[in-house]
C-alpha cells in the first residue's frame, strides 16, 4: 500500500496516524485477534480489517473499505465512501457483500452472497437525505480524524459530529449484531463524552438504535471500542 501525504492541500498530514494496529476483540461468540490496517493512496483512504480466531489464527471475517478524501464547502475535509467488500463466516459458511458507489444515480449498488442459503442478490439503494457527512460504519474513527473533529473535540473537551453511517457488511452485519437496523443507512452523532485516566478520551456514537463508546489517546490513536448492548469490546493488545 502506497502512503502519500495530504500536506499539499494545506491540511494536516494524518499519515503518522496510519499503519497497522492490533487489537483483541471480544463478543458473545468468543475472543479474537483484530488486525487493522489504514493507508492513504493518493486521494483515497483504505481501511483493511481482519478478524482471526485466537486458537488457530483462522480468518473469520475480513473487510476492505475505500473512501475518497474530499472537501466540503472549501473548508472541511471529509471522507466520501466509494467501495466496500466484506467476507464473514457464519455457521461455517462464507458469505460476502460488496458496495459500489454510483455518483450518477446517487446510489449504492449492493451485491451479496448468502453462504448458508446459497442465495445471490443485487440491488440498488438510493441515498437518503443526509443528516451529516456520509461515513462507512467501519471508518468512524477515520472520518473523525480526517475531518479534524477528533483533534478539535479533544482540545476543547466538547463537540458533536453528525454522520450518516453506511453499514458496510450489510445485510450480514445485522446477523452478527441484532441491535443494528436491517438497512444500509443510519443517522448518528459522534459526541465527545469525557476525559479518562491516562490521557484517554471517550466519545459516544449514538443513534436511535445503539450507543457505542470509542476511546482515543491524546495522540488521536484508537485505544478501544465498547458496545455494551452487544457484549462487544475491542481493546489494544
Average pLDDT score: 90
Q: What's the order of the H and E elements?
A: EEEEEEEEEHHEHEEEEE
Number of DSSP helices?
Answer: 3
Helical/strand content category: mainly beta
What is the topology, as strand order, of the major beta sheet? 8-7-6-5-4-3-2-1-15-14-13-12-11-10-9
> Alpha-carbon distance between the termini?
24 Å
Share of residues in helices: under 10%
Given as residue ranges, the uncertain stretches (5+ residues, pLDDT < 50) are 1-11
Radius of gyration: 17 Å
Largest sheet, described in full?
15 strands, mixed
Number of strands: 15
Q: Which geometry do the CA atoms define?
A: globular
Beta-strand percent range: over 45%
Question: Care to describe what's here?
Answer:
With 237 residues, the chain is mainly beta. Helix content is 8%, strand content 54%. The chain has 3 helices and 15 strands. The protein has helices at 140-146, 149-156, 173-176; strands at residues 19-27, 30-41, 44-53, 59-72, 76-90, 93-102, 107-113, 120-126, 133-136, 160-166, 185-195, 201-206, 211-216, 222-227, 232-236. Strands 8-7-6-5-4-3-2-1-15-14-13-12-11-10-9 form a 15-stranded mixed sheet. The longest helix has 8 residues, at 149-156. The radius of gyration is 17 Å and the shape is globular. Mean pLDDT is 90; it is low at 1-11.
Give a quick rundown of the structure.
It is built from 3 helices and 15 strands. With 237 residues, it is mainly β.
SSE diagram, text form:
Layout: E1 19-27, E2 30-41, E3 44-53, E4 59-72, E5 76-90, E6 93-102, E7 107-113, E8 120-126, E9 133-136, H1 140-146, H2 149-156, E10 160-166, H3 173-176, E11 185-195, E12 201-206, E13 211-216, E14 222-227, E15 232-236
Parallel strand pairs: 9-10
Antiparallel strand pairs: 1-2, 1-15, 2-3, 3-4, 4-5, 5-6, 6-7, 7-8, 10-11, 11-12, 12-13, 13-14, 14-15
Amino acid at each position: 500500500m502506497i502512503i502519500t501525504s495530504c500536506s499539499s492541500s494545506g491540511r494536516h498530514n494524518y499519515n503518522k496516524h496510519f499503519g497497522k494496529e492490533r487489537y483483541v476483540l471480544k463478543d458473545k461468540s468468543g475472543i479474537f485477534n483484530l488486525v487493522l490496517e489504514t493507508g492513504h493512496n493518493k486521494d483515497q483512504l483504505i481501511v483493511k480489517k481482519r478478524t482471526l480466531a485466537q486458537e488457530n489464527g483462522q480468518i473469520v471475517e475480513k473487510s476492505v473499505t475505500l473512501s475518497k478524501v474530499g472537501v466540503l464547502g472549501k473548508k472541511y475535509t471529509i471522507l466520501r465512501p466509494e467501495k466496500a467488500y466484506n467476507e464473514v463466516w457464519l455457521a461455517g459458511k462464507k458469505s460476502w457483500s460488496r458496495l459500489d458507489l454510483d455518483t450518477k444515480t446517487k446510489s449504492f449498488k449492493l451485491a451479496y452472497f448468502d453462504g448458508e442459503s446459497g442465495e445471490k442478490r443485487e440491488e440498488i439503494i438510493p441515498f437518503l437525505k443526509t443528516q451529516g457527512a456520509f461515513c462507512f460504519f467501519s471508518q468512524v474513527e477515520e472520518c473523525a480524524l480526517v475531518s479534524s473533529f477528533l483533534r478539535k473535540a479533544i482540545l476543547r473537551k466538547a463537540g458533536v459530529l453528525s454522520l450518516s453511517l453506511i453499514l458496510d457488511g450489510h445485510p450480514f452485519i445485522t446477523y452478527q449484531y441484532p441491535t443494528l437496523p436491517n438497512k444500509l443507512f443510519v443517522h448518528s452523532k459522534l459526541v465527545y463524552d469525557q476525559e479518562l485516566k491516562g490521557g484517554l478520551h471517550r466519545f459516544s456514537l449514538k443513534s436511535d438504535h445503539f450507543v457505542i463508546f470509542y476511546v482515543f489517546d491524546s495522540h488521536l490513536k484508537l485505544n478501544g471500542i465498547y458496545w455494551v448492548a452487544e457484549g462487544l469490546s475491542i481493546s489494544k493488545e
